[in-house]
Amino acid sequence: MSRREGSLEAPQADSSVSLLPHLEAKIRQTHSLAHLLTKYAEQLLQEYVQLQGDPFGLPGFSPPRLPVAGLSAPAPSHAGLPVHERLRLDAAALAALPPLLDAVRRRQAELNPRAPRLLRRLEDAARQARALGAAVEALLAALGAANRGPRAEPPAAAAAATSASAASGVFPAKVLGLRVCGLYREWLSRTEGDLGQLLPGGPA
Amino acid sequence: MALFEVFQTTFFLTLLSLRTYQSEVLAERVPLTPVSLKVSTNSARQSLHLQWTVQNLPYHQELKMVFQIQISRIETSNVIWVGNYSTTVKWNQVLHWSWESELPLECATHFVRIKSVVDDARFPEPNFWSNWSSWEEVSGKETSTERLKKPCKVTTPLSVQDSLGQDILFVFPKDKLVEEGANVTICYISRNIQNNVSCYWEGKQIYGEQLDPHVSVFHLSSVPFIRKTGADMYCEVSQGNVSTSIKGIVLFVSKVLEEPKDFSCETRDFKTLHCTWDPGVDTALGWSKQPSQSYTLFESFSGEKKLCTHQNWCNWQITQDSQETYNFTLIAENYLRKRSVNILFNLTHQVYPMNPFSVNFENVNATNAIMTWKVYSVKNNFTYLCQIEVYCEGKMKQQYNVSIKMNGEYFLSDLEPFTEYMARVRCAGASHFWKWSQWSGQNFTTLEAAPSEAPDVWRNVNSEPGSHIVTLFWKPLSKLHANGKILFYNVVVENLDKPSKSELHSVPAPAKSTKLTLDRHSYEIWVTANNSVGASPASIIVISADPENQEVEEERIADTEGRFSLSWKPQPGDVVGYVVDWCDHPQYTLCDLQWKNVGPNATSTVISTDAFRPGVRYNFRIYGLSTKRIACLLEKKTGYSQELAPSDNPHMLVDKLTSHSFTLSWKYYSTESQPGFIQGYHVYLKSKARQCHPRFERAVLTDGSECCKYKIDNPEEKALIVDNLKPKSVYEIFVTPFTSAGEGPNATFTKVTTPDEHSSMLIYILLPMSFCVLLIMIGCYLKSQWIKETCYPDIPDPYKSSILSLIKFKEKPHLTIMNVSDCIPDAIEVVSKPEGTKIQFRKSLTETELTKPNYLYLLPTEKNHSGPVPFICFENLTYNQATSDSGSCGHVPVPMKPPPSQLGLMISPENVKKALGKNYMNSLGEISAGGTNLNYVSQLASPMSGDKDSLPTNPVEPSNCSEYKRQMAVPLCLASPPLTENSSLSSITLLNPGEHYR
Prior knowledge:
The complex is a heterodimer.
Chain A (H helix, E strand, L loop, with lengths): L2 H12 L5 H32 L31 H29 L4 H27 L12 H13 L2 H29 L6
Chain B lengths: L1 H28 L4 E9 L4 E8 L8 E11 L5 E11 L4 E7 L9 E9 L17 E3 L30 E4 L4 E3 L4 E7 L5 E6 L2 E3 L2 E4 L2 E6 L10 E9 L2 E13 L6 E7 L4 E7 L15 E6 L4 E5 L4 E5 L7 E9 L4 E9 L10 E6 L6 E6 L9 E9 L2 E10 L2 E6 L7 E10 L10 E6 L11 E8 L2 E8 L4 H4 L5 E8 L7 E6 L4 E7 L3 E8 L8 E5 L10 E4 L1 E2 L2 E5 L7 E9 L9 E6 L5 E5 L8 E10 L4 E10 L12 E3 L6 E4 L14 E7 L10 E4 L5 E7 L6 E4 L7 E10 L2 E2 L6 E4 L5 H24 L1 H8 L10 H9 L17 E3 L7 H8 L8 E3 L47 H4 L1 H9 L3 H4 L9 E4 L31 E3 L16 E3 L8
Parallel strand pairs in B: 9-16, 38-45
Antiparallel strand pairs in B: 1-2, 2-5, 3-4, 3-6, 6-7, 8-10, 10-14, 11-12, 11-15, 13-14, 15-16, 17-18, 18-21, 19-20, 19-22, 22-23, 24-25, 25-28, 26-27, 26-29, 29-30, 31-32, 32-35, 33-34, 33-36, 36-37, 39-40, 40-43, 41-42, 41-44, 44-45, 46-47, 47-51, 48-50, 48-52, 49-50, 52-53, 52-54, 55-56, 57-58, ...
Protein name (chain A): Cardiotrophin-1
Function (chain A): Induces cardiac myocyte hypertrophy in vitro. Binds to and activates the ILST/gp130 receptor.
Family (chain A): Belongs to the IL-6 superfamily.
């Protein structure tokens, strides 16, 4: 039995057959949104890097993947989890990202006040992450697999931690912004992949 | 004794005071030691701030003291700086002193101690230093601002890394702000000396010096400005290729604050001073590290100060009317530097007037006008210097300066009539020039005046029998001389040979020519241009009674870069000048005659115009103008501004073709209408022969093929005999003209084939034969009447028959033709209708002699008849005899047989009618309605005259009854038996429908 089948077994049993097309459309729609946002996140990361100056724009520059308060990086074991569990993690990460992105935008507004496009992208990213997170939550609810696990750290606390970290200096704030943008892209990509597994004909 | 007591008392008092002073000095001798030393740090400025007091200082006493300060780094023995600080110390005063470190204070622990000495003139030497204060330690970790350190008694200092917490790497200073060109020292502190730490400055790795095993220092010299968001310096700890920790700082490098340039202040209304300057570069940095520099205005006389809200200008309100002099200081300031500039000025010297207004023009006439304007009154008795400029067509014509108080006025003269001008004015302070106001202007137009110059007139004379057709041309007057809009031209013609009234011709503008027809007298013509004010001076030209000399030979001239240089021989006698005329467009009927007037002493001129086009032949005529204003044609010139190759090739004719030669001609080729002077012709000849004919030379064509070429240098030689040819050979020939620019266009060769030599023999034979035939034909034509009468005589006209005269006399004078009843028929020839075609029938005619006709004999008196088919008997139709009138018609009871079906159409009444309709209308009226197709028997058996081919070869002999053989119409039904192909008839013709008979 494939992983996908296994993950959908319980929800399908409860769902009405007539609702399946609607659910499939919803999955497809959410997957498309995740795909689109992944592309946007890629552009955001590129623009962020360009505006920070060297060494951020240099190819060899790869700062350590420092932990961000309130937001964990996608774990390597993520792929081994059932799909609904993965989606729960995705939704939690997407819920934690908006305040972090807002904090990054505020810092960049100080550092790069004449970069309106980056600031707009960051603002959009926070809003879009929130929207996608809600869509995934709704999907989980429709599948009968609503988030029952421990909630992520409250967004406000995460943002406060981010701000405190950024206050220690400009360079750490830049690195933190880079990390947040990178995590945003990773979680979107991961969400897109997880949603793709729910689609008919998706990878097993 | 008293004196002794006074001396003793004085001595003791002196001793007492001395003791008192000595006791004070002794008190000073007690060391004045600095106490309560406190050290604080300013991390951003990397400075140590010391504060202390002096112990044992007398109450309310001031002493000048010197303090020596010693600073060590890492350990007390490592003294890195020693210096003295001199100041006057009051009782109970807290002293402050700062020291700035080039090394971030966080990078190492610092130690400070201080000692002092009295350096006051009131206390003579020897002075001695106090003891050192105890060392004050400033730990790297504890370099937070405004935090005071307590004295540390520990001689072994606390290491920096011990005080930094749990992080493994630190970089200092944090986000430092420096000016461009500064030297910056940066350090990193690594907790573990085993760590592999690499540091980078703007992406490039840098290497520093090790301060201790945990601390390394980097010196960046003369840092440049990189970007407003700062430049990154970071260090990373890596294990293998993996970065485990990264720490960095952003160094904010500010541009150096510049001194404001071009600082000045001015007033327009004596109420506000407007000060401006050039701020130079903006030193603002990102992350709010440094805002843009601020500007402050300070006026020293009033002591007032104003913080400017703009970067390059500031307004200052003038509050005191009495203040005339101002001393301004402009202070530019940022976090790192302060700059200032100063100006001192008198207010009345810095006046930038408001723009003049109400600019008007009064009393405008043809050549002058009065200009008025106003200025704002800003101060009593303030005098303005105003500048006036007058423009015409965008060019400045006049400029004036005038001093005014409030209302300005200036008389503008020397203006051109009927011209639009633009006059403008600006003003400045007259007493001290500071700055002109903006211009205020207005347009005006002067009035018209009479044209000031006679029009330039020329003429073209065409002589006709008894008259001269004179076309007068004139050039429009320039705007300068027209002085208004030219409305018409007056042409006055006066006969010089006989007194007569002058003729006036008025030609409305904008015509530029008029045509006059004059008789063969001398005429003087006056031409004036007129506008609404008056007439111009007259231009006079005289037309001589003698026709113009056309015998002047035309001379060719060469072009020189689109210009023609013309020269001529001076005209004998007095001349007032020369005129050269030509057509700009000679190829058109309206050739646009142009002329140029040349002075009397000139014998050459250059004609240059944009109208000249390559490949067009221009003809120039040079006239001399006599004192009587009579023009005499002197010379003719012709030339091209640029010669081109001929545009077409001549149409050649090949003539006199023999087996060995032929003549080539192109006599209709015009050499005059070509785009260059035709210099000759090239004749190209192609043949199979490899060798060129004599006079021809070998040439290679543009397509690479070879041929023979013959050059004709005379353009009028338009024929060439090509000889020495081979009989019965094909030659290809091509003629093209050439000019100095080249040959004519490529075209196809014309093939000429020389005839065989023997073919000429045939001509000698055929020609006489043709001549003989011709002679015979002419002879036949001349003797045609004879031949006709001999071979095919005309059918006699019955109206002209002599028999008629006899009949008229006897019985029926109304009859015009002979009646059948007048004749006694001797026989009726019964014919049978053939079924074959006409051709077949005609064929049968040829067999007439072999077939014997059937004859039906009739009674000459029989009139009535009975039977189903009317039987019509009539005479030859040529006689126009109606059968109904014939009293001699008889009926033959011949049994009816239906006609062949194929002929059904033909037997219908309509067909019959058609058959007879055209030529026998008169007869038809007399034929009964049931008439059918007819056969008749010609007396002369003359068939259709229009069909000579069918002429019978054996004509029938005339009968004895009369001159003519009697003929009758026979219905087809009587054709019994039907004609077969073998049937033959003599002198019988079948009239088919539609067949004409004459």
